[in-house]
Amino acid sequence: MNILDIFARKARMPAPGAALPGRSTPITEPSLHFVNGRALAGPYASGLETALFGLGCFWGAERRFWTEAGVVVTAVGYAGGETPNPTYEEVCSGLTGHNEVVLVVFDPKVVSYEALVKRFFESHDPTQGMRQGNDVGTQYRSGIYVADAAQRATAERVRDAYEDELAKRGFGAITTEIVDRPPFYFAEDYHQQYLAKNPNGYCGLGGTGVACPIGAGVAAA
């Protein structure tokens, strides 16, 4: 199998019944956030909400959110596939269907979900399908995994407004999947807050350079 065949396979979701079997127990015990010392898996304080995003390599994606005012905890993991409790190597094989995602725990009194969705779209190129820049595979697809109908409505409204703006600049259609939130599996500890532990590490995120044209409601609420 040549390199083009490998890339093509990794950019396709595994056929039904072809995903790796995984395991019944978690691959890791979530620890403390390397930057702020809070528990990655909670329990989270009353009144906090969560968001789940996939926007390419989760090392750089996570950093885009832990620096946001109002974000209390971030963690990276896997979601959107078939294999329970996958390892990083299994996800990279393209045989789990999982996406590399960032869990964002936030205080809605400080930052709105809409503002986080805006941050999501501005932090990567959501028109590339099963890739982000040079990173190719199902694990790098653009995705918003919604917790409820309100999150879905917000995500779709921001997507539509941003797609209109991208079209004016000559970009193609947005390929971001917006689906009900699937199970989230914490990634291995060495991936958590990777760019804080490895300041010169690979980021992998670019973006379109186009600002999301959402006004009222995006600022901290």
From TrEMBL:
GO molecular function, one term: peptide-methionine (S)-S-oxide reductase activity
Listed GO biological process terms: cellular response to oxidative stress
GO CC annotation: cytoplasm
Residue intervals of the Peptide methionine sulphoxide reductase MsrA domain: 50-203
Catalytic activity: [thioredoxin]-disulfide + L-methionine + H2O = L-methionine (S)-S-oxide + [thioredoxin]-dithiol; L-methionyl-[protein] + [thioredoxin]-disulfide + H2O = L-methionyl-(S)-S-oxide-[protein] + [thioredoxin]-dithiol
Keywords: Oxidoreductase
Domain of life, per lineage: Bacteria
InterPro entries associated with the record: Met_Sox_Rdtase_MsrA_dom, Met_Sox_Rdtase_MsrA_sf, MsrA_MetSO_reductase
Entry annotation: catalytic residues: C57
EC numbers on record: 1.8.4.11
Job of this protein: Has an important function as a repair enzyme for proteins that have been inactivated by oxidation. Catalyzes the reversible oxidation-reduction of methionine sulfoxide in proteins to methionine.
Family designation: Belongs to the MsrA Met sulfoxide reductase family.
Protein name per Swiss-Prot or TrEMBL: Peptide methionine sulfoxide reductase MsrA
Species for this entry: Kaistia hirudinis
